[in-house]
Amino acid sequence: MASKVTRRTFLGTSSTAVAAGVTASAVPAEPAESGRSKPVRVVGICCSPRKGMTTFASLQVCLEAAREVSDRIEVELIELAGMKIDGSLAAGLPLEPGQKDDFPVLVPKLGDSKVGGIIVGTPVYFGNMTSLCKAFLDRCIVFRKNDFALAGKVAGVLAVGGARNGGQEVTIQSVQTALMCQEMIIVGDGRPTGHFGATVWSGDEGDVTKDEFGMATTRNLGRRVAEVALRVAGEAGNR
């Protein structure tokens, strides 16, 4: 009699760049380094409005998995919590008098030629990304207007929900749609989970590390982003 294989068993094995708040010249255009020894940076963007919470913790696990892939991988985690990022500026509206705008400080960080991968992490609010995440993605129009400065960089998405099936996959796909508009290389979590991205459940106690399946997808996503970013960097160095 054939042995039973359950699903769980199987799985276990803006109109102008200035209007966007940044001039196009703010995006660095650095000469590419040659060779396979070039460092590759993977940047995590935490889009939770609350500092140091479950999305931040999940991204830490994700980036650590990325770093372990190779000694060439550098990682950086940026929290948007507390930053003033107005998505309406992407529509060409000017800054109001006295209005603070923190988005420009992110442009050189993400546009740096050393950045080979970007992982966007967001909590799930009513089945979708946070307003902070949407504002960030809208403001990234500056990169499109600067000759698609993010094109060719690898992108992954992590979503944290308050329930095991709380809209994580829908949220991931929503963020991926915006990243595709940047001509980024979209990847999901790697084997053996191998789906859309990192799907994390915060749990009743808010301790994401207790979500074994979610942490597996998180580590697989970090590893996958790093592996593909290294491959892309290697191919670019051989041109």
Count of helix runs? 7
Query: What percent of residues are in strands?
Result: 15-25%
Q: Per the principal axes of the C-alpha atoms, what is the gross shape?
A: globular
The CATH topology corresponds to: Rossmann fold
Summarize the helix and strand pattern as letters.
HEHEHEHHEHEEH
What is the averaged pLDDT score?
A: 88
Structural class, please? alpha/beta
Description:
With 239 residues, the chain is an alpha/beta fold. The protein has one domain: Flavodoxin domain (Rossmann fold, 3-Layer(aba) Sandwich), CATH 3.40.50. It is 33% helix and 15% strand. It has seven helices and six strands, in the order αβαβαβααβαββα. Strands 1, 2, 3, 4, 5 and 6 form a six-stranded parallel sheet that branches. Helix 2 links the parallel strand 1 and strand 2. Helix 2 crosses helix 7. The radius of gyration is 18 Å and the shape is globular. 45% of the residues are buried.
Keywords for this entry:
239 residues; alpha/beta; Rossmann fold; 6-stranded parallel β-sheet; 7 helices; disordered N terminus
